[in-house]
Amino acid sequence: MTNQESWRGEVDLEPGDLIEIFRKGYQHWAVYVGLGNVIHLAPPTEYAEAGAASLKSLWANTAIVKKEQLSSVVGTDHYCVSNKHDSRYAVRTPDQIISFAEKLEGKTMKYEITTQNCEHFCNSLRYDVSRSDQVTKVIWLGMAATVALMLI
């Protein structure tokens, strides 16, 4: 499925789709597993509409793999299907994605914002590649700001 935005669940979802949820200040990620459910890597304090408290939870060092209703995870935030790396990496089948995700459900995992966050987790499930574009973007912006300051 291509990227589609939704303000209130108007997107056609297919099992294995990556869901990008637009929180205040960052994006949370989940994998759609069917019947309105997603599996996501959630810091212990992650909950819908968490706002600043959720942003603080990003600094936790562990996270829990949870299966929840998409509507509960999204809350009042906007979201979209974001299978943006389908043309770059081999995509696992929906059955493989769901199987890997469900085997991890309920497990506590190491969580590190720069190397093992919810976006890394979801990309690993779909593509077997751990990556986070939002972390890469922040690193590049930081480097650009540093260079700009050096030139002043």
Automatic annotation (TrEMBL):
Q: Where is the LRAT domain?
A: 18-134
**PROSITE patterns linked to this entry:** LRAT
Fetch the Gene3D superfamilies from UniProt.
Answer: endopeptidase domain like (from Nostoc punctiforme) (3.90.1720.10)
What would you give as a GO molecular function for this chain, any one? phospholipase A1 activity
Name of one Pfam family that matches: LRAT
Which InterPro entries does this one have?
Answer: H-rev107_PLA/AT, LRAT_dom
**Keywords carried by this UniProt record:** Hydrolase, Lipid metabolism, Transferase
Single GO cellular component annotation? cytoplasm
Tell me, which GO biological process terms does this entry list? N-acylphosphatidylethanolamine metabolic process
The UniProt family comment states: Belongs to the H-rev107 family.
Name listed for the protein in its UniProt record:
LRAT domain-containing protein
